Amino acid sequence: MKTLISRGKAWLERKKVVGHLYLRLFFGGLTTLVNIVTFVVATHAGMSWWIANFVAWVLSVLFAFVTNKLWVFNSHTGTIKALLWEFSKFIFARVLSLGIDYGFMFLFITILGMGEGLSKLLTQFAIVVANYAFSKFVIFKNKPTDN
Predict the structure, then answer these.
(1) Residue 146 lies in a domain
(2) Nearest to 33 by CA among 66, 64, 69
(3) How far is Cα 49 from Cα 123, in angstroms, rounded to an integer?
(4) Is there a domain that residue 147 lies in?
(5) How many angstroms separate the Cα of 79 from the Cα of each of 73, 103, 134?
(6) By the 8 A CB rule, do 19 and 146 touch?
(7) 144 in a structural domain
(8) Domain containing 99: what range?
(9) Does 82 have pLDDT greater than 80?
(10) d(Cα 126, Cα 69) in Å, to the nearest integer?
(11) How high is the pLDDT of residue 146?
(12) What is the pLDDT of residues 91-142, one digit of tens each?
């Protein structure tokens, strides 16, 4: 996976499209894709949407932490303690967005009777905004960007 991401970053650099905005969009899009694909595969495998949503959240959060830390916000921690603090803030913020995720999923599926896949897709708009705000202003807030 690291090689694939490194190749993707190198390709973006060659195309001169690397800027903080493009990195956020690129890796945010990949994180959203990880979330949606995991959700769809899990629900098609017979999991309830409640469990599938949690599995998708876990995988996308792990993917997002690594990509946000290393490439989007270029965050470098000097100690394990600093890394764990950063990771704990990241997880806390993502738990908040998981609450938003479940709230919208419940609204769309249970109350409005929408399909699970469409509900997941629509919910991602709110999640992307919330996750970006948490990362930019809380978790990686002191990291330099070119914006």
Answers:
(1) no
(2) 64
(3) 13
(4) no
(5) 18, 36, 22
(6) yes
(7) no
(8) 2-139
(9) yes
(10) 21
(11) 42
(12) 988 898 899 999 999 999 999 999 999 999 999 988 888 877 877 777 766 5
CB 12 within 8 A of CB 26: yes
119, amino acid identity: S
Please write the tens of the pLDDT for every residue from 58-81: 999 999 999 988 887 778 888 999
The tokens describing 63, both together, are 């993917």
How many domains is the chain partitioned into structurally?
1
Q: Which tokens sit at 15?
A: 């195309």
Q: Is residue 93 part of a domain?
A: yes
DSSP structure string for the chain? -HHHHHHHHHHHHHTT--SHHHHHHHHHHHHHHHHHHHHHHHHHTT--HHHHHHHHHHHHHHHHHHHIIIIIS----SSHHHHHHHHHHHHHHHHHHHHHHHHHHIIIIIIS---HHHHHHHHHHHHHHHHHHHIIIIISTTS----
Task: Give the total residue count for the chain.
Answer: 147
Distance between alpha carbon 90 and the CA centroid of its chain, in Å? 10
